[in-house]
Amino acid sequence: MKIGRPLAATAGAIVVFSSAALLADGSATLPLKTIADIRLQGRTTRLDYQAYDPARHLLFIAHLGDSALIVVDTRAQKVVATVAGVSQVHGVLVIPELGRVYASATGSHQVVAIDESNFKVVAAIPAGDYPDGLAFAPSAGKIYVSDEAGTGESVIDVASNRRLATIPIGGEAGNTGYDPSSRHIFVNVQDRNELVEIDPQTDSVVGRHRLAGAKHNHGLLIEPARRLAFVACDGNDRLLVVDLQTMGVVSTFAVGADPDVLAFDPGLRLLYVAGESGIVSMFKQEDTGLRKVGEGKLAPHAHSIAVDAETHRVYLPLQDVGGHPALRIMEPNP
């Protein structure tokens, strides 16, 4: 259901209110309250991944259906720029130390590099048939790009903005993540129910790990403090917790239908799993493992979520709120 009132008529307008996420019967199902809805520019078409730069307080949102990257200043709570012409933009990655944003322009089979100071495209790099998820390996200065339609992982050098290699992974790539402890890249191979491990120093596959209980493992998030990988499987609506030291699945949880994007708040130790069904599942990380603390339908297509670790606010771009796309800002209840 829709939460709150219709938005004001100008782009970037804010509606502020406070409520828990509710089901149709009015029962609170998520320990979250809504702070504001910010009206976004463009049409009520699909929104996709996000990336947050905490130093600049900028949130970058892929507006896939409009082939545009929306830039929101989270302190001012307003849209400050729109980068048009990023064809069918899916994945977004911000590298604050470079002052650069990378976005997968799936429609043109490229990854584009964008300058954070002026929001201008500075490079367009070939990146496979269907570039999607992105991960940065700072130890090697390389970006790794999932090719969801192919069977490879593209490698981009950030110093030159050139593609260096395509690594065969033997299947359909889901999301990609970087583990700072091993300094390895991990890739979901979703049609094989595997987590593939890549060494950025050699750009070679150094491990293939079968995930017990996985079915079409797409979403991926690395939690470096405890060396865990959280894996969302949209084929059976499950969240897997993988120990990156043993590469074994240590626990499995049911989540909302068609889970997609994950986000983690390290301060509050809260994990969020957002699904294509609009259902968001929340987990608390404790010494004994994860504990589910809430689950409920937030809004249609609420499949993308991002966290500001400083304020603990969460951001959900919604395709249609009162006839317009909007960014919903929420925060955990005490």
List its traits:
mainly beta; disordered N terminus; 58% strand; 334 residues; single chain; globular; six-stranded antiparallel β-sheet; 30 strands; four-stranded antiparallel β-sheet
Helix tally equals 0
- According to DSSP, the number of beta strands is 30
For the termini, the CA-CA separation is 24 Å
Secondary structural class: mainly beta
Structural notes for this entry:
With 334 residues, the chain is mainly β. 0% of the residues lie in helices and 58% in strands. It contains no helices and 30 strands. The chain has strands at 14-16, 20-22, 28-39, 50-53, 58-63, 68-73, 78-84, 89-95, 100-105, 110-115, 121-126, 131-137, 142-147, 152-157, 162-168, 173-179, 184-189, 194-199, 204-210, 217-223, 228-233, 238-243, 248-254, 259-265, 270-275, 279-286, 289-297, 306-307, 314-321, 324-332. Strands 1, 2, 3, 28, 29 and 30 form a six-stranded antiparallel sheet that branches. Strand 2 and strand 3 (28-39) form a beta hairpin. The radius of gyration is 19 Å and the shape is globular.
Task: Please specify the SSE layout and strand pairing.
Elements: E1 14-16, E2 20-22, E3 28-39, E4 50-53, E5 58-63, E6 68-73, E7 78-84, E8 89-95, E9 100-105, E10 110-115, E11 121-126, E12 131-137, E13 142-147, E14 152-157, E15 162-168, E16 173-179, E17 184-189, E18 194-199, E19 204-210, E20 217-223, E21 228-233, E22 238-243, E23 248-254, E24 259-265, E25 270-275, E26 279-286, E27 289-297, E28 306-307, E29 314-321, E30 324-332
